[in-house]
Amino acid sequence: MSDTLSAPTGARGRTAAADTSRPGRSPLLRWLRPVLLVAALVVLLVLPLYVEEFWLRTGFAVAGAIVGAIGLNLLVGTSGQLSLAHAFFLAVGAITYTYVSGESGGLGTRAALRGLELPPIVGMVLGVLLAGLAGLLFSPIAARLRGIYLGVASLGLVFIGVHVLNTWTPVTGGFNGRSVPEFSLFGFSFGNSDPTLFVLGVPYREAERLWYLGIVLALAAYVFARNLLRSRPGRALETLRDSEVAASVMGVNVQAYKARVFMVSSMYAGLSGVMYALSIGSIAPESFGLTVSVLYLAMIVLGGLGSVGGAALGAAFVTALPLVFQQFADVLPLVSAPGEGGIAAGTAARYLFGLAIVLVVLFEPGGLVGIAHRFRRRGRRPGRGSPSATAGSGARSTDPDPSDPPARGSTR
């Protein structure tokens, strides 16, 4: 009987704490977040009218990296499966798009290039689907391995992918690579012309058009991942990360969920690969090596494992930093353009976010998003001796302290 009565008492304590904390929240703060989101979206929409082409191309590269980082975060941060094969799935998406939508003809290193010359949207969709299929085919291995063993097994896919890129010349162009066809949708080209487009007197060429494409794809990837984590499969994946035994006892099909999340993560990587190919305009074997997989791991660790927003922040930091350093190498101390002495822009950027990774692991395992959550919790903490603090003191005996860092994988 005492056990039966204790649960409602705890529930009443939590309800009382919630009721006392809600009146303290200003209506202004309640509406501030949606207003800021709308304002940010408006700024992103009008930005091409005011910024240079460099920033627009950097933004599209960041959008592609955000899509890939969110996919890897679902696999590593949410379900706890270490994978170093992300570069392979990016390559599958990029190659599929280039081959399906590319033209035949021209010369590779040893053979004429081939292409199906299908609409680019078909190439993009097939790139995403084939990347997901590749992840699904690898999932039986992933379902039987964990930790470093899974990481080493997935690493083999990267070496296989680089070998195929170098030798399948008619499709990939060999070690010289091949150019990527422009993206178009229902007759509207995302290239520099056809049709000629002006907005408020500003010419909208390839950089401006790809900017909006990147916003749409990155936003869709973000919303889908957030909804997935809030759904029943998302909670099952988090349980799977914490304990496979506990997840199995609760009725979660461990192998099936591992296979599904690997497939979803690979599809994200395939879309990211298509966007990466469109961003640089060509594909080559060195663009999909082991370094790319390591950089994506750096993105999700810096941003915060298990956080969709953290993955986006980490992707923006890791992707934009080398490009910004390269653009402003002449004014930054110790940084110089290639061949001019000093530290190259790409090397300096790697030093910086390498140091950032060490600092995050040591002092803030929650990543960049964990820092933001820490400041937000401090702002919400009631003052000592206030009525709300007194009313909620009973609830704090059973609930976790707000100052505690979020558990790894938190999506708050």
Outline the structure in words.
- With 412 residues, the protein is mainly alpha-helical.
- It has one domain (23-397): ABC transporter involved in vitamin B12 uptake, BtuC.
- 66% of the residues lie in helices and 5% in strands.
- The protein has helices at residues 2-21, 27-46, 53-78, 86-101, 120-144, 147-167, 169-172, 206-230, 232-242, 244-249, 254-280, 290-303, 308-327, 345-363, 367-380, 387-391, and strands at residues 105-107, 112-113, 178-179, 184-185, 188-189, 198-199, 202-203, 282-283, 335-336, 343-344.
- A two-stranded antiparallel ribbon has the order 1-2.
- The longest helix is centred in the middle third of the chain and has 27 residues, at 254-280.
- The chain starts with a helix and ends in a 21-residue tail after the last helix.
- It is a multi-pass membrane protein.
- It is found in: Cell membrane.
- Keywords: Cell membrane, Membrane, Transmembrane, Transmembrane helix.
Briefly summarize what is shown:
The protein is mainly α.
Lay out the secondary structure.
Blueprint (H helix, E strand, L loop, with lengths): L1 H20 L5 H20 L6 H26 L7 H16 L3 E3 L4 E2 L6 H25 L2 H21 L1 H4 L5 E2 L4 E2 L2 E2 L8 E2 L2 E2 L2 H25 L1 H11 L1 H6 L4 H27 L1 E2 L6 H14 L4 H20 L7 E2 L6 E2 H19 L3 H14 L6 H5 L21
Parallel strand pairs: 9-10
Antiparallel strand pairs: 1-2, 3-8, 4-5, 6-7
Helix pairs in contact: 3-8, 3-11, 3-12, 3-13, 4-5, 4-6, 4-11, 5-11, 8-9, 9-11, 12-13, 12-15, 13-14, 13-15
